Structures are given as structure tokens and as C-alpha cells.
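Replying to the earlier thread about multi-chain prediction with a worked example.

Input:
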Amino acid sequence: MGKKAINPIKNGTVIDHIPAGKAKNVWEMLNLPSSEEKMFLGKNLRSKKLGKKDMLMFENLELSLKQLNVIALIASSATISIIKNGEITSKDQVTLPELVEKVITCPNPKCITNEEGVVTKFDVEENGDVEVRCCYCEKKYSINNVEIKM
Amino acid sequence: MKNLISMRDLTKEEILYLMEVAVKIENGEIMPDMQRKLAALLFFEPSTRTMFSFDTAMKRMNGDTIIMSGTGNTSTKKGETFADTLQTIAQYTDLIIMRSPTEGSARFAAEVVDIPVVNAGDGANQHPTQALLDLYSIIKTQGTLENLKIGMAGDLKFGRTVHSLTQAMALFGAEFKFFSPGFLSMPQNIKDFLDDKGIIFKECDENMDKIDDLDILYVTRIQKERFASPEDYEKVKGSYILTRDMLNKVKNNMKVMHPLPRVDEIHIDVDDTKYAYYFPQAKNGVYMRQAIISTLLGGV
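Result:
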């Protein structure tokens, strides 16, 4: 590590290699509190790996890889870099979690999670597309058909 | 096994173990003793036979039950949370057996209380004790669960019984024929599940005229309210009645099963044929529920 960052932020988190067009979805999913800090959203940037990519940068905001693994649900190629004093101190690719808690709303109106305020839990499966199964009502959904908010 | 919530949780070995316990109870080889054990039957949705079947199972083992039926006499109307209701009842009893229209409620209950929970039906999701008693009926009549040809007829879209049973039989390499009107056909997620497992299935229309190669024909009720108009219902209903003469060429070992209640999808002239098995099937439910309760409460 210690590689010089080319980012316009000195301290914070960079979410790179987001598939083009998905940065807004990732941003909405993160559901971050409003802040006066700098935040950058890059769209359709050139990428060797993806052809085109999106990127998000947050000044003075450090998010853990565990928190950010949820991003893999919609952007499995994303990488997370932590920037400290202008240098990249860690860079990791997100990995698809086996279980996600709290962040997905079950679309099934008859599910207990929509009636009793029970915290949602979804098993994650990948068969080409990412699918999630509610641990309570057992209904399975494509990741594109559920609302995700951290 | 700490709880029984979904067929998805059970391994083939656990299923076969429950079959073994049920057959020993039926044959009188073992008699689990549930004396001083109390089960809460919480039925937040109407049920007669499932509730009576559990009640009978418990009492045949010298156990006892307390029954809550409907929501009128609960504290939920006073604003108590479901979790609090469950935790309170768990202080009085050794086992919770629960039916609710809310899907996932039994799974939630099992997380909240520290006594075993049995799912007696949660909305359109799971009804594992029905699936297990169906498997027990199949193994009793066929001598095996392996590589059987199973026909399923009726409302395959909303019927939780057929979903649970299909998933369970897939573990044993069954081959399926589904008979239903198009709009009540087996849901895509179940068909995907079968495809993933490499299980052969064929979708037929609602006419049960291709049943001669089956080992089991599992018939379910079609509910009138599922149809767009009364005329549509009448049209389908007429072609969806199993009669005695349709059984002329079926296999000798074939059995007709039904989770009951029956309306008119099996004509009463089938009842006294050797193929009719729906009433013994209901009796098997008591043995299977005895096996489940005693396994969970450690009485075997």
C-alpha cells in the first residue's frame, strides 16, 4: 500500500469499478446521512477492466469492507479504497455476502417482516444473476426487483 | 431438530428418521410419553382437521394442550406485539404449534421463544407437517419414496401443500405430472427448483386423463374465488372431477390422495375403490404428528 492516490480527496473512501450507470443505485443504496463533506460521482469513465465504469468518492467518510460488501449485490465488480493523507491504505474488491440483514425490504406484503417490523434477512444466491430469498416467507426475488437501502 | 418450520430445513435423513418413528408408533413398538407436557395450539387462522390432528396426537401420548383459535381472544387486539404474545405463552408451555396467515411467522416465532415451534401452516408458504404425513402415506402404500411417478391435480399455484410435497419428493428422485388449468399451474420458482435438481416433470391441462402410469395421484381442491367469473369456474370444475371409471387402467398400486377437505373434485364413487386413500391419509397425520412432537420434546 502507500500508493499515491490520484483522487481529489485526502481522506475517505473510494468506490471504484462500479458498472456504468449503477453509481446512482449504489449511492441510493448506501442511504448516507446528509453531510457537508465533499462527494464525487463519476459516470461513464474509461476502464480497462469494464470498458466504462462509474465511481463514487466520499471525503472524510470511512466505510468498512463488511458494510460495503452489500454493494456486491448490484455491483459485484466494485472495489473499495480507503484513502488516508492522500494515499491509498487499502484496496479490496467487494464480495457477495451469503446473508444480508436489514437492507432489503421484502416485496411480499404477506411476509411477517412487513407486518411486525421484524428485521429482514435474505439469503443470497448467484446463478448467473443475483437472487435473494427471504429467510421468513421464503420467497425468492431477482436483485433487480427488490428495494435495497443500508 | 429443534423446530419444524419448513421442508427446506430438513435433510433426507431427518425425513426418513421421522418416517421410522411414525411407523414404530403406529405399530405399537414405541409409545412416547408426553405426560406433564403441554403444547400451545395457536391457530390464528381457521382450521379444524389440522388442529384436531395435533390435539389428538398430543393426547394419545398422555400430553395436554391449550388452544387459542382466531385472534379475538388474544392480547394482540389490545396492542400487544406478536413477539410478546409468543414469549408469554412460552412461559406456560413446552411446545408451540402455530398456524397463521402471515408468511414467515413460524420462523419468527422460533427466533423469539426458547421452546420448540412447529409450523402448522403459514399463509401460502409452508405446511411441513402435511408434507411429512403425505410422505408417510406414500411410503406406507408404495413401500418406498424413491423414483415414484406422482401426479398432482388442482390448484397448484396457491396450494402450499403441493409445493412442500413436490420439494420433498424431489429429494427422492420422483417424476411429476401436473394437472391444472393454466392460470393455476405450478409456480415458476417450483419448476425452476425441479429443473435445478434435474427432476422430470410434465405439465398437462386439468383433464386427468393421463394417469395410468402414476403411483400416486394427489388431488387438491380448486377454490371458486380464484376464478375470474363463476362461468369460468363451472367450466373447469366439470372437467376436473375424478370418477371411478377414470381408474379402469391405473396401476394396481396407485393411490389417490387428498389433503381434505374435499368438495367435489373426487366423486364419492371413488371412495370404496382400493385406490382411495384420503381418509387413511388423515389418520396417518396423527402418527406423523406424534413422531414430530416426541422428536422435538425428546420423548422417543
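Chain B has nine helices and nine strands.

Feel free to reuse this layout for your own posts.
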